[in-house]
Amino acid sequence: MTAGASTRRGKRWSRLEWAVVVACVGFCGFVLWDADSDPKVPPPLDPAAKWKSDRVWHDGKAEYAVYRAHRTIYGKSREYLATIITNTQHMDPETTTKAADWSRPGMVPVFKHNVSEIIPTENYDYRYLTTAFVRADTLEPFKVVMSSQEDCGSTYKQIVNAAKMLTCDQFSYFPEEGHTSNRVGVSGDLYLQDTLSLVLRSFPFNEPPKEPVKIRLIPDLTDTHRSDPTPIDALIRYIGRETLDLPIGSTVAHHVRVELAEEASKAAAEASDYWFAAETGPAWLNVLVRYEGPFGVVYELASLKRWAYWERP
Question: Distances from the Cα of 80 to the Cαs of 15, 72, 302, in angstroms?
Answer without folding.
Answer: 62, 11, 12
